[in-house]
Amino acid sequence: MSAEATMTPWREYGRYGTVGIELLVSIALGYYGGRAIDVRVGGGGWVTFFGFLFGVAVGFRSIFVAARYMQRDIDREERRARGEDPWSKEAPKGDGEDDRGKPTD
User: Fold this and answer.
1) Mapped to the 3 state alphabet, what secondary structure does 25-42 carry?
2) Which residues are within 8 A (CB) of 60 and not within 5 positions of it... i.e. 6 or more apart?
3) Which sequence spans correspond to the domains of the chain?
4) What distance in Å separates the CA atoms of residue 38 and residue 27, rounded to the nearest whole number?
5) The Cα angle at residue 80 between residues 76 and 81, in degrees rounded to 5
6) What are the pLDDT digits (tens) for 69-86?
7) 48 contacts 35 by C-beta, under 8 angstroms
8) Are 51 and 79 in contact (CB under 8 A)?
9) What distance, in Å, lies between the first and last C-alpha atoms of the chain?
10) pLDDT interval class at 1 (50, 70, 90)
């Protein structure tokens, strides 16, 4: 077993295991940041509300970014399982193509 094969699960745990923490921290920072501004300017709770919404938006954005990376990693693992080069940028050959990638009739 190679060193890279043993490192991959830990790398994925680190990349995807922090998504929930990022969501909670961004919501908390948005709320408390909005609350601090609200106290200073006397916004009547509106700045706190919009800070909370901003934190929710930033948190969900981090979830979508992590999902995009996860999909890329899944596609890479599927290519590796099929025996293709997982790091190549070119699209895999589909049906209707010969060995050189040219369409067949």
Assistant:
1) HHHHHHHHHHHHHHHHHC
2) 23
3) 14-81
4) 16
5) 120
6) 888 888 888 888 888 776
7) yes
8) no
9) 43
10) very low
